[in-house]
Amino acid sequence: MDTINESESLAKYAKALSHPTRLAILKHLENQSCCYTGDLVEIFPLAQSTISQHLKELKNAGLIQGELNPPKIKYCINQTHWQQAQVLFQQFFS
Predict the structure, then answer these.
(1) φ and ψ at 62, to 5 degrees?
(2) 13-41 pLDDT, tens per residue?
(3) Residues ≥6 apart with Cβ < 8 Å to 63
(4) Coil, strand or helix: which one is 35?
(5) Any idea where the HTH arsR-type domain is (predicted)?
(6) How far apart are CA 47 and CA 18, in angstroms?
(7) Which residues, 6 or more positions from 30, have their beta carbon under 8 angstroms from its beta carbon?
(8) 36 pairs with which residues across the strands?
């Protein structure tokens, strides 16, 4: 990956991680294999639409992936992008 692409990816991940709720969602997902939107609504004191918006931001950044299991969507961490984000942040801060 070249420097420009690395910078763009790092900025995309940083933007997705820029909200405390998204950090909490990732921390929750990191400790289990997957969960449904409804599970997160029970854990976090936010409306389902707000949780869905945060999930959308994390998914757009590639940090999580969703699997449609009608009528629900099951979310889990996208391990490939999660590891890439960790490497890019480590490189940035070293």
Answers:
(1) 90, 5
(2) 999 999 999 999 999 999 988 999 889 99
(3) 13, 16, 17, 26, 77, 78, 81, 82, 85
(4) strand
(5) 1-94
(6) 19
(7) 77
(8) 74
Residue 70 has pLDDT above 90, yes or no: no
> Which whole-number Å values give the CA distances from 68 to 11, 33, 57, 76, in the listed order?
28, 16, 17, 12
Q: What is the pTM of this model?
A: 0.90
Q: Which residues have CB under 8 Å from 49's CB, separation 6+?
A: none
Look at phi and psi of residue 42 and say left if phi exceeds 0, alpha if psi is from -120 to 50, else beta: alpha
Collapse the DSSP code of 33 into the 3-class scheme (helix H, G, I; strand E, B; otherwise coil) and give the result.
coil
Which of 4, 18, 1, 2 lies closest to 61 in space, CA to CA? 18
Q: Please give the pLDDT value at position 69.
A: 82
